[in-house]
Amino acid sequence: MSARRIDPKVRAVYGRLWKYVLPHRLVGFVAVVAMAISAVVEATMVWMVEPLMDEALVSHNLESTRWLPVAFIGVFIIRGISGFATEASLGWIGRSVISDLRREVFRKYLTLPAGFLDSRSKGPMLSKMTYNVEMVAESVTNVVTILIRELLTVVAAIGVMLIQSTRLFVFVAVLFPVIAVLIRILGNAFRRYSSRIQDTVGDVTQVSEEVLSGNRVVKVFGGYDYETERLEEADERNRRQNMKLVRSRSFGVAITQVVFGFGVAGVIYFAGIESLNGDLSPGSFMSFFGAMMLMLQPLRRITNVNATLQRGIAAGDSLFQVLDQPDEINEGTYRSENIAGRVEFEKVCFSYGDETRPVLNDVSFVVEKGESIAIVGHSGSGKSTLVNLLPRFYDVTAGRILLDGVNVEEYELSNLRFAISLVSQDVILFNDTIANNIAYGQLRSCSRAALLQAAEAAHIMDFVNEMPDGLETIVGDRGVLLSGGQRQRIAIGRALLKDAPVLILDEATSSLDTKSERRIQDALGVLMRDRTTLVIAHRLSTVENADHIIVLDSGSIVERGTHKDLVEQDGHYAQLYRMQFSEDASPT
Ligand SMILES: Nc1ncnc2c1ncn2[C@@H]1O[C@H](COP(=O)(O)OP(=O)(O)O)[C@@H](O)[C@H]1O
Ligand SMILES: [Mg+2]
């Protein structure tokens, strides 16, 4: 089990894990001392078998063995205390490492770029917070226990064996290389499996998460069999991988025991000869034998240290991969406390990830402070993408976006985003009260009066007044306890409260029926007043009053102007408008 054979990756991951253990070194010291005491105490117990046998039981020399019962009591008390101290201190370190890692991963999740998060399955990312951190901590504490307590126990046991019979020990020592070779062979067998186990747990989480949040679709479209199959597949993969691990681990244990059995037979045979020669007393033999048995369990765990280590490495490696992901790029230093809100897109091109297909192509426009621009186009034409570039959820591939004449990439990120309000198509609410969902994040510190005013203006009070808990009503996971329109009104209230100079409305009223939409139209009107607004609306009525309109088609601006201009032009916009108009007029 030499450290020299451990490959560099193992060392790198463990090296990093140590940084999480290091702050707890004082507790670690207690653990080490307690483990050392445990090892010595165990050995003392088997050593005391010799006087017990030879003096008390064989020679009946009761005078000189009166201390024995007392000594046994003492030994057991010390054993209890050191055992407790070991478990408690290691547990403490383990739980602390779990907390530290979990919090660090969570902080990372908060700052990862939107692009990274969009492209990942959430299941594996969730299981990192739960499964992986537990695995890592378990592995660390287990490896530490094995390397310290078990090794010390083995050393102490060897000490007892040497005291009792050097020649018998030499015989036993022949067993060790055999066991060591087995450890190595089996250790290599584990390495392949542990990484795949991590992934399959993530798959199980993923399917379960989807079933829970998409339970309506599952119910209506009868997805029971499909989902059950998916889960069983993922679970089966997980079970198989784990069984491979269990098999090879228990195989390792069995092999070690069998080897040990042969060793025991040999020792008994050899001890018989020694005893005949008068070189070995019964007490010495029993004590020797006890020491050998004492080694069995620690040796077994040492045999498995590689598996334990590998599990930790796999879990830790996938954690560190996430922790090593670059954060959102935030290299800008420009800060302005007074952003006016002039927005300019300058020959902006954009494509997602490594895709070469451009989603936006040479988009240029200017919106003066306080003006509004409507972005119109078929679904998939790039409207949401365009507005997402302004708060830098994604960065442009070419061209520039300027806010008050300064490139958005030069702004300090939080300063930039502080100037932007967003109401999007799919409103995300947090499982909290309506009030806290309106006054979310930096808005927490707002006054009650401001909150009520915003709630009033966004027509939130219309439905809140009917609820028993009013604004203190809990909205449920993602706001499931509210209707789509109610959720959108809360999002509009949130934007009103933020009172930022730039406003993005990405189909902000798509979940409202025409009647409710008309009612909150004035709320939107209030919201848009004196604010630079980028509005994407699925109903063109919202668009008519915009100062500018651009029409996107496959990521390029194909028309621009005011509503009146564009209707007269009788092009894309006029066609969209006619379609929309007839849709609105039809009795739905
Ligand atoms: N996160 C993403 N990763 C890759 N492609 C995306 C992503 N989001 C949108 N797209 C693609 O970009 C194009 C424009 O999408 P989007 O801006 O959402 O259109 P719109 O809002 O006009 O309906 C679509 O073809 C869509 O498939
Ligand atoms: Mg969209």
Features:
4-stranded antiparallel beta sheet, elongated, 63% helix, 588 residues, Rossmann fold, binds adenosine-5'-diphosphate, alpha/beta, 10 strands, ABC transporter transmembrane region fold
In whole angstroms, the N-to-C terminal distance is 75 Å
Text of the CATH class of the largest domain:
Mainly Alpha
- Quick check: average pLDDT? 86
Integer tally of domains: 2
**Named CATH topology of the largest domain:** ABC transporter transmembrane region fold
According to CATH, the homologous superfamily of the largest domain is ABC transporter type 1, transmembrane domain
Strand order of the largest sheet: 6-7-8-3-9-10
The main sheet comes to: 6 strands, mixed
**Count of DSSP E strands?**
10
In a nutshell, what does this entry contain?
This protein folds into two domains: 7-323, ABC transporter type 1, transmembrane domain (ABC transporter transmembrane region fold), CATH 1.20.1560.10; 343-585, P-loop containing nucleotide triphosphate hydrolases (Rossmann fold), CATH 3.40.50.
